[in-house]
Amino acid sequence: MSIVKKDIIDGNKTRCIIKSSNILESIYDSNSKELTLTFKNGRRYKYTGVMKEIYSGFEKADSNGKYFNQYIKHLTTTRLDDINISSML
Q1: What is the CA radius of gyration of the chain?
Q2: Domain residue limits at 23
Q3: What are phi and psi of 70, to 5 degrees?
Q4: Rounded distance, CA 78 to CA 66, Å?
Q5: What domain count does the chain have?
Q6: Which of 2, 52, 80, 82 lies in disulfide reach of 19, CB 3.0 to 4.6 Å?
Q7: How far apart are the first and last CA of the chain?
Q8: Phi, psi for 60 (deg, rounded to 5)
């Protein structure tokens, strides 16, 4: 597992800082089943239809990137505004 820090936001959102070569942060909304991922290049994407079991597997995976590629990458995606990641590091 490569979760560095985990917080609960607004009672239904889980925010994790991830130690990964590509993924920096995840925010999972259990009500809407949406997962927002921030990548180390500053790009952000929202994935819809992410079931709780899939997100739990993502959190527990030895390699979040490999798990993402296998179970999440193919889901419906919306690209969000890029962010300046230097403020997050």
Answers
A1: 12
A2: 3-87
A3: -80, -40
A4: 20
A5: 1
A6: 2
A7: 20
A8: -85, -10
